[in-house]
Design a protein that fits this description.
With 292 residues, this protein is an alpha/beta fold. It has eleven helices and eleven strands.
């Protein structure tokens, strides 16, 4: 059995924006056993049928793949002998490509995880496939759809005040003001928080989805009417789940990092300063997206 390997070890948003390229790789390798070497939590989000198997990149059995290329440790006990090709989203400084070649993988395609010029990240990844024309649907990240295990009442608006960097976050007080505007319009607001947001002073009585496993959160988002968040992996998750998504951008470049989807509205802060973005403007964009 011929095996083709795809490696991605990046953050959630980076992984989701690479999904269209992974799907294109699948189409170019029909009949092969496609394996993802990556994070198990992210693998659960991939569309049904994209991968035949998942290998945990954080498992000790694959430590040699990322080690010094001169390491003489044997790889005979590891499942690389049947791998004929590999697509790697990894930097040039990584030993991954050299190690796989030493293990007998002769067709290795590598791409830096991030573009050197400001181009949409999804299109950057798809540039690997020169001469191929992609439809809008093929250029849009989509995740597996599952029934929601969390209670999601009608007219739910999910709000995520965090991100991987404090500088990308709209002030919490503005999120709170926005939540009140949404509630006055009849929305049931659900706050999304994780370990990084545990200390935030949310409104008294706020309904919170805290540290929810990604597949369950994705299912809840797919059943929600609206999502509002910063430039973050969860915002990409909401868009890929098909939720109407309002993405707030300040210092980062939406040309590169804006989530893609038919129901996505990108709001760029004045002067790229999120503190200058008022809640009434964001609320108006929410209403425009939903035509409410």
């Amino acid at each position: 059995m011929s095996v083709s390997l795809v490696y991605h070890g990046g953050a959630l948003g980076d992984f989701l924006t690479a999904l269209p390229a992974m799907a294109a790789w699948r189409r170019q390798h029909p009949g092969e056993h496609l394996v993802l070497l990556g994070k198990l939590a992210f693998a659960e989000l991939t569309p049904h049928g994209l991968f035949d198997e998942v290998w945990d990149a954080e498992s000790p059995r694959f430590a040699w793949v990322f080690g010094n290329a001169g390491d003489s440790r044997t790889t005979a006990c590891l499942p690389m002998s049947s791998v004929s090709s590999a697509l790697l989203f990894s930097s040039a400084s990584s030993a991954l490509s050299a190690n796989l070649t030493r293990a007998g993988v002769h067709n290795v395609v590598r791409q830096d995880p991030f573009p050197a010029t400001p181009v949409p990240i999804v299109d950057y990844h798809l540039s690997l496939f020169s001469g191929v024309t992609f439809s809008e649907e093929q250029r849009t990240p989509v995740i597996a759809r599952r029934p929601a295990s969390l209670p999601v009442p009608p007219h739910t608006a999910a709000v995520h005040p965090g991100s991987g960097s404090a500088r990308k976050n709209w002030p919490l007080a503005k999120f709170v003001s926005l939540s009140r505007l949404l509630e006055a319009r009849g929305f049931h607001v659900r706050w999304i928080t994780g370990p990084a947001e545990e200390t935030l002073a949310l409104p008294a009585g706020a309904s919170v989805w805290h540290d929810v496993p990604l597949p369950h959160l994705a299912a809840a988002l797919s059943s929600s009417e609206l999502y509002v968040g910063n430039d973050s992996g969860i915002t990409h998750l909401a868009a890929a789940a098909g939720c109407a998504t309002v993405a707030l951008f300040g210092p980062t470049d939406p040309t590169v990092w804006a989530p893609r989807g038919r129901r996505v509205r990108v709001v760029v802060a004045p002067e790229k300063k999120l503190c200058l973005l008022d809640e009434e403007t964001v609320f108006a964009d929410c209403c425009w997206l939903l035509r409410r």
